[in-house]
Amino acid sequence: MKKMTNNQPVQKTARRQAWKAIALTAGCLGLLGTGVGANVIHAAPVTMTKVTTEQQKTTTSKVTNKTIEVAAGQTFTINHEEIGSNGYSWTYTTDKGITFVSKSEKAPKGQDGMTKPTIKTWKFKADKAGTYKVTFNYGPAWKKDAKPAETVIYTIKVSDKKAADQSTVVDKTIEAVAGKTFNIKLEQNDSTGYSWTYKADAQLELVKAAEQATASNSKSKDGDPIVGAPTNKTWTFKATKPGTYKITFTYEREWEKGDKPVQTIIYTVHVK
Questions:
Q1: Do domains 58-165 and 167-271 have the same CATH topology?
Q2: What is the rounded average pLDDT of the residues 141-150?
Q3: What CA–CA distance (Å, rounded) separates 247 from 202?
Q4: For the residues 7-12, what does the mean pLDDT come to?
Q5: Does domain 58-165 have CATH number 2.60.40.2020?
Q6: Which one is predicted more confidently, 32 or 210?
């Protein structure tokens, strides 16, 4: 058995102190990112931000500029389509000087009988000459502060001419024979909302009114009918006795009765 010397406990104590010093040094170096333990990285936690579908949508919208020229005191209309199922609708703002007159809507049906998007019509009027703005925005009705999907800015140029000056009046003469019929044929475009109406003296009797598509522009190259093409309408009258009579035709929208028509034709009928 090996005999221990008196200096062995001292050596063991020295070795333990040396190992403690080494361990303490390694720990400090690890905290500094060098030496022993440098391969251990303590990263700060990362918060992931989820991007919602709403945030991914673009913040820009379609903007269109249009110009309307009218006379002071003359009404003008603005039409826009709406699809009720998507919850979007048109709203507007106007400059001072533009007066709102009325609003109407119509849901036309196509050739297949299905209802098309609703056509809404706003009627305005400016009493004084100048340049004004009417801005229409198309967006979700339930979210008033949302970015509109579409914006249409109308520049309204109002001249100082009287509204009466904007209407065209034409005088025409017709020769007819008592007891025999005569025709008046005019072109109209129902898709614009404008149509011809007439007033005739009592001695002139309406026999019939017929409407047919114009041969030149009622069909495409493929032979299909063109939607919105003008049509020819023919009125057949008969005079009961000789004399000179009047028939006045006006071209206007049905919902704008009372306004100045865009065109008036006065027929003087000389009946022999």
A1: yes
A2: 83
A3: 10
A4: 56
A5: yes
A6: 210
253's tokens: 């929208």
What amino acid is encoded at 179 in this protein?
G
Q: What is the pLDDT of residues 181-224, one digit of tens each?
A: 999 999 887 767 788 889 999 999 999 888 776 545 445 455 54
Question: What is the pLDDT at residue 12?
Answer: 57
Q: Where are the domains of the chain?
A: 58-165, 167-271
Cα 148 to Cα 60, 135, 202, 217: the distances in Å are: 9, 12, 56, 38
Beta-sheet pairing, 62-72 with 150-162: parallel
DSSP alpha helices (H): ranges in the chain? 8-32, 53-56
Q: What is the 3-state secondary structure (H, E, C) of 121-155?
A: EEEEEECCCEEEEEEEEEEECCCCCCCCCEEEEEE
Given a cut of 70, is residue 128 above it in pLDDT?
yes
Is residue 154 within 8 Å of 136, Cβ to Cβ?
A: yes
User: What are the structure tokens assigned to 78, written together?
Assistant: 């603005």
The verdict on domain 167-271 having CATH code 2.60.40.2020 is: yes
Amino acid 259: pLDDT: 73
Determine the Cα–Cα distance for residues 229 and 214; give it in Å rounded to an integer: 8
pLDDT of residue 248: 94
Q: What global pTM score does this model have?
A: 0.43
Say what the pLDDT of residue 23 is.
Answer: 52
Report the b/e string of 35-64 with b at 16+ CB within 10 A: eeeeeeeeeeeeeeeeeeeeeeeeeeeeee
Cβ contacts of 197 within 8 Å, gap of 6 or more: 249, 250, 252
Q: How far is CA 73 from CA 28, 66, 98, 135, in A?
A: 89, 20, 10, 20
Residue whose pair of structure tokens reads 């004084």 in the numeric block: 128
